[in-house]
User: What shape does this take?
Amino acid sequence: MPPGGGIQRGHKLTERADMSPGIHTPLTDLLGLRYPILLAPMGAVAGGALAAAVTHSGGLGLIGPGYLGDDWINREFDAAGNARVGVGFITWDLAKSPQRLATCLARKPAAVMLSFGDAMPYVAAVRQAGAKLILQVQSVAAAKEAARLGADVVVAQGIEGGGHGAKPEQGRSLLPLLPAVVDAVAPVPVVAAGGIADGRGLAAALTLGAAGALIGTRFYACRESLGHANAKAKIVESSGDQTLRTRIFDIARAIDWPLEYTGRAIANDLSRRWHGREAALEAALDEEKQRYVAAVAAGDVDTSVVWAGEGIDLIHGVEPAAEIVERLAAEARAALEKTRGFLI
Assistant: This one.
Protein backbone atom coordinates (compact mmCIF):
# COMPACT_ATOMS: atom_id res chain seq x y z
CA MET A 1 0.00 0.00 0.00
CA PRO A 2 1.37 3.49 -0.79
CA PRO A 3 2.16 5.83 2.12
CA GLY A 4 -1.06 7.81 1.64
CA GLY A 5 -3.24 4.72 1.42
CA GLY A 6 -4.14 4.15 5.05
CA ILE A 7 -4.38 5.73 8.46
CA GLN A 8 -2.08 5.60 11.43
CA ARG A 9 -2.81 3.53 14.52
CA GLY A 10 0.35 3.26 16.54
CA HIS A 11 2.92 2.99 13.79
CA LYS A 12 0.92 0.80 11.41
CA LEU A 13 -1.23 1.83 8.47
CA THR A 14 -4.71 0.34 8.55
CA GLU A 15 -7.77 0.62 6.33
CA ARG A 16 -11.46 1.13 6.95
CA ALA A 17 -13.94 -0.18 4.43
CA ASP A 18 -16.21 2.86 4.75
CA MET A 19 -13.49 5.38 3.87
CA SER A 20 -13.38 7.52 0.76
CA PRO A 21 -10.43 7.08 -1.62
CA GLY A 22 -7.32 8.74 -0.27
CA ILE A 23 -5.75 12.02 -1.38
CA HIS A 24 -2.03 11.72 -1.97
CA THR A 25 0.31 14.68 -1.30
CA PRO A 26 3.82 15.17 0.12
CA LEU A 27 2.19 15.67 3.53
CA THR A 28 0.49 12.28 3.44
CA ASP A 29 3.82 10.73 2.43
CA LEU A 30 5.67 12.47 5.26
CA LEU A 31 3.19 11.62 8.01
CA GLY A 32 1.68 8.40 6.66
CA LEU A 33 -1.84 9.79 6.30
CA ARG A 34 -4.79 8.90 4.11
CA TYR A 35 -5.97 12.50 3.83
CA PRO A 36 -3.92 15.72 3.99
CA ILE A 37 -5.88 17.04 6.96
CA LEU A 38 -4.35 18.24 10.24
CA LEU A 39 -6.36 19.16 13.32
CA ALA A 40 -5.35 22.60 14.56
CA PRO A 41 -4.07 22.31 18.16
CA MET A 42 -6.72 24.64 19.58
CA GLY A 43 -5.83 25.41 23.18
CA ALA A 44 -7.98 23.51 25.69
CA VAL A 45 -10.37 22.55 22.86
CA ALA A 46 -8.35 20.00 20.86
CA GLY A 47 -8.01 17.29 23.47
CA GLY A 48 -6.98 13.67 23.19
CA ALA A 49 -10.34 12.26 22.13
CA LEU A 50 -10.67 14.75 19.27
CA ALA A 51 -7.06 14.28 18.15
CA ALA A 52 -7.50 10.50 18.17
CA ALA A 53 -10.74 10.73 16.18
CA VAL A 54 -9.07 12.78 13.46
CA THR A 55 -6.10 10.40 13.32
CA HIS A 56 -8.29 7.28 13.21
CA SER A 57 -10.27 8.91 10.36
CA GLY A 58 -7.22 9.39 8.14
CA GLY A 59 -5.74 12.75 9.13
CA LEU A 60 -3.46 13.70 12.00
CA GLY A 61 -4.82 15.04 15.26
CA LEU A 62 -2.81 17.57 17.26
CA ILE A 63 -3.52 18.07 20.96
CA GLY A 64 -3.59 21.74 22.05
CA PRO A 65 -2.47 22.39 25.65
CA GLY A 66 -2.74 26.16 25.26
CA TYR A 67 -1.69 27.58 28.64
CA LEU A 68 -2.40 24.36 30.53
CA GLY A 69 0.13 22.26 32.40
CA ASP A 70 1.49 18.76 32.74
CA ASP A 71 -1.57 17.22 34.39
CA TRP A 72 -3.82 18.30 31.52
CA ILE A 73 -1.26 17.17 28.94
CA ASN A 74 -0.93 13.69 30.43
CA ARG A 75 -4.67 13.32 30.81
CA GLU A 76 -5.31 14.19 27.17
CA PHE A 77 -2.55 11.94 25.85
CA ASP A 78 -4.15 9.17 27.92
CA ALA A 79 -7.50 10.05 26.32
CA ALA A 80 -5.93 9.62 22.88
CA GLY A 81 -5.26 5.97 23.70
CA ASN A 82 -3.12 4.21 21.11
CA ALA A 83 -3.75 6.80 18.38
CA ARG A 84 -0.67 8.35 16.85
CA VAL A 85 -1.18 12.06 17.54
CA GLY A 86 0.84 15.25 17.71
CA VAL A 87 0.83 18.35 19.89
CA GLY A 88 1.03 22.08 19.36
CA PHE A 89 2.30 24.93 21.53
CA ILE A 90 2.12 28.71 21.64
CA THR A 91 5.88 29.22 21.55
CA TRP A 92 6.12 32.45 23.54
CA ASP A 93 4.04 30.88 26.32
CA LEU A 94 6.05 27.63 26.21
CA ALA A 95 9.10 29.71 27.16
CA LYS A 96 7.46 30.35 30.56
CA SER A 97 7.17 26.63 31.35
CA PRO A 98 9.41 24.69 28.93
CA GLN A 99 9.07 21.45 30.90
CA ARG A 100 5.68 21.01 29.19
CA LEU A 101 7.50 20.18 25.96
CA ALA A 102 9.49 17.46 27.71
CA THR A 103 6.24 16.07 29.12
CA CYS A 104 4.81 15.85 25.62
CA LEU A 105 7.95 14.43 24.04
CA ALA A 106 7.94 11.64 26.63
CA ARG A 107 4.58 10.59 25.12
CA LYS A 108 6.20 10.10 21.69
CA PRO A 109 4.06 12.48 19.59
CA ALA A 110 4.14 12.08 15.83
CA ALA A 111 4.70 15.81 15.38
CA VAL A 112 5.18 19.00 17.35
CA MET A 113 3.76 22.26 16.03
CA LEU A 114 5.13 25.59 17.27
CA SER A 115 3.51 28.96 16.60
CA PHE A 116 3.89 32.64 17.51
CA GLY A 117 7.42 32.98 18.74
CA ASP A 118 11.03 31.85 18.49
CA ALA A 119 11.06 28.12 17.78
CA MET A 120 14.84 27.76 17.73
CA PRO A 121 15.31 26.82 21.43
CA TYR A 122 13.06 23.77 20.96
CA VAL A 123 14.12 22.40 17.59
CA ALA A 124 16.87 20.11 18.87
CA ALA A 125 14.64 18.49 21.49
CA VAL A 126 11.89 17.82 18.96
CA ARG A 127 14.40 16.31 16.55
CA GLN A 128 15.99 14.11 19.22
CA ALA A 129 12.57 12.79 20.18
CA GLY A 130 11.93 11.67 16.61
CA ALA A 131 8.90 13.92 16.11
CA LYS A 132 8.25 15.88 12.93
CA LEU A 133 8.65 19.63 13.34
CA ILE A 134 5.75 21.80 12.14
CA LEU A 135 6.23 25.57 12.26
CA GLN A 136 3.35 27.98 11.69
CA VAL A 137 4.07 31.37 10.12
CA GLN A 138 2.20 34.48 9.01
CA SER A 139 4.66 35.91 6.48
CA VAL A 140 7.04 34.86 3.71
CA ALA A 141 10.04 36.05 5.73
CA ALA A 142 9.00 33.92 8.67
CA ALA A 143 8.45 30.97 6.33
CA LYS A 144 12.02 31.25 5.07
CA GLU A 145 13.27 31.29 8.66
CA ALA A 146 11.18 28.22 9.45
CA ALA A 147 12.75 26.39 6.53
CA ARG A 148 16.20 27.48 7.69
CA LEU A 149 15.46 25.99 11.11
CA GLY A 150 14.70 22.68 9.43
CA ALA A 151 10.91 22.55 9.63
CA ASP A 152 9.47 19.35 8.19
CA VAL A 153 6.23 21.23 7.48
CA VAL A 154 5.48 24.95 7.26
CA VAL A 155 1.94 26.15 8.02
CA ALA A 156 0.98 29.36 6.22
CA GLN A 157 -1.69 31.07 8.33
CA GLY A 158 -3.96 33.70 6.81
CA ILE A 159 -5.77 36.34 8.84
CA GLU A 160 -9.13 34.63 8.13
CA GLY A 161 -8.38 31.97 10.71
CA GLY A 162 -10.01 31.70 14.11
CA GLY A 163 -7.97 32.32 17.24
CA HIS A 164 -4.67 34.12 17.25
CA GLY A 165 -2.74 35.30 14.23
CA ALA A 166 -1.22 38.39 12.70
CA LYS A 167 -3.04 41.71 12.86
CA PRO A 168 -4.76 42.55 9.55
CA GLU A 169 -2.42 45.51 9.04
CA GLN A 170 0.60 43.23 9.49
CA GLY A 171 -0.70 39.88 8.21
CA ARG A 172 -2.03 38.66 4.89
CA SER A 173 -5.04 36.79 3.62
CA LEU A 174 -4.46 33.12 2.86
CA LEU A 175 -5.16 33.29 -0.88
CA PRO A 176 -2.10 35.47 -1.76
CA LEU A 177 0.08 34.32 1.15
CA LEU A 178 -0.12 30.59 0.50
CA PRO A 179 1.44 30.35 -2.99
CA ALA A 180 4.11 32.86 -2.02
CA VAL A 181 5.11 30.67 0.94
CA VAL A 182 4.99 27.54 -1.23
CA ASP A 183 7.43 29.14 -3.67
CA ALA A 184 9.66 30.49 -0.90
CA VAL A 185 10.28 27.23 0.96
CA ALA A 186 10.02 24.54 -1.75
CA PRO A 187 10.43 21.58 -1.48
CA VAL A 188 9.31 21.78 2.18
CA PRO A 189 5.59 20.84 2.32
CA VAL A 190 3.32 23.77 3.11
CA VAL A 191 -0.02 23.43 4.88
CA ALA A 192 -2.74 26.07 4.51
CA ALA A 193 -4.52 27.52 7.56
CA GLY A 194 -7.19 30.15 7.92
CA GLY A 195 -10.90 29.98 7.17
CA ILE A 196 -10.94 26.46 5.68
CA ALA A 197 -14.11 24.71 6.83
CA ASP A 198 -15.10 22.41 3.96
CA GLY A 199 -13.56 20.30 1.24
CA ARG A 200 -13.70 23.09 -1.32
CA GLY A 201 -11.27 25.03 0.84
CA LEU A 202 -8.96 22.03 1.05
CA ALA A 203 -9.12 21.59 -2.74
CA ALA A 204 -8.40 25.28 -3.28
CA ALA A 205 -5.35 25.05 -1.02
CA LEU A 206 -4.06 22.03 -2.93
CA THR A 207 -4.43 23.84 -6.26
CA LEU A 208 -2.39 26.72 -4.85
CA GLY A 209 0.46 24.33 -4.10
CA ALA A 210 -0.27 23.38 -0.52
CA ALA A 211 0.24 19.81 0.63
CA GLY A 212 -2.72 19.92 3.01
CA ALA A 213 -4.81 22.01 5.37
CA LEU A 214 -4.75 22.73 9.09
CA ILE A 215 -8.37 23.00 10.22
CA GLY A 216 -9.57 24.38 13.53
CA THR A 217 -13.03 25.94 13.83
CA ARG A 218 -14.79 23.16 11.89
CA PHE A 219 -13.48 20.71 14.51
CA TYR A 220 -14.26 23.06 17.41
CA ALA A 221 -17.93 22.44 16.55
CA CYS A 222 -17.71 18.66 16.72
CA ARG A 223 -18.81 16.18 19.35
CA GLU A 224 -15.35 15.23 20.58
CA SER A 225 -14.02 18.76 21.11
CA LEU A 226 -13.62 20.06 24.65
CA GLY A 227 -15.41 23.29 23.79
CA HIS A 228 -18.54 24.21 25.75
CA ALA A 229 -21.82 23.17 24.13
CA ASN A 230 -22.91 26.82 24.05
CA ALA A 231 -19.76 27.77 22.14
CA LYS A 232 -20.36 25.01 19.59
CA ALA A 233 -23.95 26.18 19.11
CA LYS A 234 -22.73 29.76 18.70
CA ILE A 235 -20.40 28.69 15.89
CA VAL A 236 -23.19 26.83 14.09
CA GLU A 237 -25.63 29.75 14.27
CA SER A 238 -23.17 32.53 13.39
CA SER A 239 -21.71 33.94 10.17
CA GLY A 240 -18.18 34.86 9.23
CA ASP A 241 -19.44 38.44 8.94
CA GLN A 242 -19.91 38.40 12.70
CA THR A 243 -16.26 37.65 13.48
CA LEU A 244 -13.61 40.24 14.27
CA ARG A 245 -9.95 40.39 15.16
CA THR A 246 -9.46 41.93 18.58
CA ARG A 247 -7.36 42.07 21.76
CA ILE A 248 -10.40 42.49 23.99
CA PHE A 249 -10.66 38.87 25.09
CA ASP A 250 -6.96 38.62 25.92
CA ILE A 251 -7.21 41.75 28.04
CA ALA A 252 -10.32 40.44 29.82
CA ARG A 253 -8.53 37.15 30.55
CA ALA A 254 -5.37 39.01 31.66
CA ILE A 255 -3.29 37.07 29.13
CA ASP A 256 -0.43 39.21 27.88
CA TRP A 257 -0.29 38.27 24.20
CA PRO A 258 2.41 40.02 22.13
CA LEU A 259 0.93 43.12 20.53
CA GLU A 260 1.64 41.96 16.96
CA TYR A 261 -1.06 39.31 17.32
CA THR A 262 -4.82 39.58 17.69
CA GLY A 263 -7.47 36.88 17.93
CA ARG A 264 -10.42 36.28 15.60
CA ALA A 265 -13.61 35.52 17.51
CA ILE A 266 -17.37 35.84 17.18
CA ALA A 267 -18.48 39.31 18.26
CA ASN A 268 -20.48 39.36 21.49
CA ASP A 269 -21.61 41.77 24.19
CA LEU A 270 -18.10 42.07 25.63
CA SER A 271 -16.45 42.92 22.33
CA ARG A 272 -19.20 45.36 21.39
CA ARG A 273 -18.70 47.23 24.66
CA TRP A 274 -14.91 47.32 24.64
CA HIS A 275 -13.46 46.80 21.15
CA GLY A 276 -11.69 50.06 20.28
CA ARG A 277 -11.65 51.02 23.97
CA GLU A 278 -8.81 48.77 25.06
CA ALA A 279 -7.26 51.30 27.43
CA ALA A 280 -10.59 51.76 29.21
CA LEU A 281 -10.97 47.99 29.58
CA GLU A 282 -7.51 47.73 31.09
CA ALA A 283 -8.44 50.45 33.58
CA ALA A 284 -11.58 48.50 34.56
CA LEU A 285 -9.88 45.10 34.53
CA ASP A 286 -10.32 44.21 38.20
CA GLU A 287 -14.09 44.19 37.82
CA GLU A 288 -14.26 42.95 34.24
CA LYS A 289 -11.96 39.98 34.86
CA GLN A 290 -14.24 38.75 37.63
CA ARG A 291 -17.24 39.03 35.31
CA TYR A 292 -15.32 37.18 32.62
CA VAL A 293 -14.32 34.30 34.89
CA ALA A 294 -17.93 33.93 36.02
CA ALA A 295 -19.11 33.92 32.39
CA VAL A 296 -16.70 31.13 31.49
CA ALA A 297 -17.92 29.03 34.39
CA ALA A 298 -21.53 29.59 33.34
CA GLY A 299 -20.97 28.94 29.63
CA ASP A 300 -22.07 32.52 28.91
CA VAL A 301 -20.87 33.10 25.34
CA ASP A 302 -22.33 36.61 25.31
CA THR A 303 -19.33 37.49 27.47
CA SER A 304 -16.74 34.72 27.15
CA VAL A 305 -14.79 34.25 23.95
CA VAL A 306 -15.64 31.86 21.12
CA TRP A 307 -12.65 31.81 18.79
CA ALA A 308 -13.83 31.21 15.23
CA GLY A 309 -12.65 31.78 11.67
CA GLU A 310 -14.41 33.40 8.75
CA GLY A 311 -15.45 30.01 7.36
CA ILE A 312 -18.19 29.42 9.94
CA ASP A 313 -20.94 30.04 7.37
CA LEU A 314 -20.06 26.54 6.12
CA ILE A 315 -20.64 24.85 9.50
CA HIS A 316 -24.21 23.62 9.89
CA GLY A 317 -24.13 21.24 12.82
CA VAL A 318 -22.18 19.60 15.62
CA GLU A 319 -21.09 16.24 14.24
CA PRO A 320 -18.61 13.45 15.01
CA ALA A 321 -15.08 14.25 13.89
CA ALA A 322 -14.95 11.14 11.71
CA GLU A 323 -17.92 12.35 9.65
CA ILE A 324 -16.27 15.75 9.23
CA VAL A 325 -12.99 14.25 8.02
CA GLU A 326 -14.74 11.98 5.55
CA ARG A 327 -16.87 14.79 4.18
CA LEU A 328 -13.89 17.14 3.86
CA ALA A 329 -12.06 14.49 1.85
CA ALA A 330 -15.05 13.63 -0.33
CA GLU A 331 -15.82 17.29 -1.04
CA ALA A 332 -12.19 17.99 -1.88
CA ARG A 333 -12.06 15.08 -4.31
CA ALA A 334 -15.32 16.23 -5.92
CA ALA A 335 -14.03 19.79 -6.28
CA LEU A 336 -10.76 18.62 -7.81
CA GLU A 337 -12.59 16.33 -10.22
CA LYS A 338 -14.91 19.19 -11.22
CA THR A 339 -11.97 21.35 -12.28
CA ARG A 340 -11.15 18.83 -15.00
CA GLY A 341 -14.24 20.03 -16.83
CA PHE A 342 -12.70 23.46 -17.26
CA LEU A 343 -9.93 22.08 -19.46
CA ILE A 344 -10.27 21.92 -23.23
